[in-house]
Amino acid sequence: METYLSCKIKKITRLVRCTGVDVLDKIDIKIIECLKKNARENASVIGSQVNMSVSAVIERIKKLEANGIIRQYTVVLDSKKLGMDITAFISVSMEHPKYNNNFNEFVKTHKQITECHYITGDFDFLLKVNTESTGGLEALLNEIKSAGGVSLTKTLVVLSTVKEDYSVNLE
Questions:
Q1: Contact of 23 with 33, CB cutoff 8 Å
Q2: Which of 38, 81, 118, 167 has its CA at 20 to 30 Å from residue 100's CA atom?
Q3: CA 130, 133, 139, 143: dihedral to nearest 10 degrees?
Q4: H/E stretch holding 35
């Protein structure tokens, strides 16, 4: 059962939707913001920032994990430093929805496809890809176009990235 809860954050009232989860209070939000900056930060440092004991911080983090609010901890890699110089977004249109499941499986087998979203509008899927070169992008595009049911693609190559956030903003 979903409930809508009003939380005051920086003098702004907004609705936070929770699914069977207690209210995210200001301390939970501060803990999450600390972890967003550095997921490896130890509980004593976070505790000093939120004025709580280490054990209380650990208990809150475990609760956020158990409730699925914190899904995972990960490493953010710099694709350019790893030789993946080209980032592109590829819109993909399918001939018919019956091809969607096979396309989803195709996407999961290609490591250069880092994101896949099923979308509304003129296209069915939006892919984010990273390749080592324009030649690599061309090869990947040919594979995508050859996948069963793909009728049309449109590619946008990223020249520079102004903002790339990996989490939901709570403020």
A1: no
A2: 167
A3: 0
A4: helix 26-37
Radius of gyration, CA atoms only, the chain: 21
Return contacts of 30-38, CB within 8 angstroms, 24+ apart: 31/57, 31/60, 31/61, 31/64, 32/64, 32/69, 32/70, 32/170, 33/170, 33/171, 35/61, 35/70, 35/73, 36/167
Lookup: tokens for 15: 């609705």
CA distance 128 to 112: 8
Q: Residue 140: how many CA atoms within 13 Å on its side-chain side? A: 26
Nearest to 104 by CA among 90, 118, 86: 118
For residue range 14-53, what is the model confidence (pLDDT) as tens digits?
A: 335 555 555 788 999 999 999 999 999 999 999 999 999 9
Helix (H) or strand (E) holding 113: strand 113-118
Which residues in the chain land under pLDDT 70? Answer: 1-22, 171
User: What is the distance between the terminal CA atoms of the chain, rounded to a whole angstrom?
Assistant: 24
Give the pTM.
0.76
Exposure letters 63-83 (e unless 16+ CB within 10 A, then b): ebeeeebbeeeeeeeeeeeee
Residues in CB range of 116: below 8 A, 6 or more apart: 104, 107, 125, 126, 127, 128
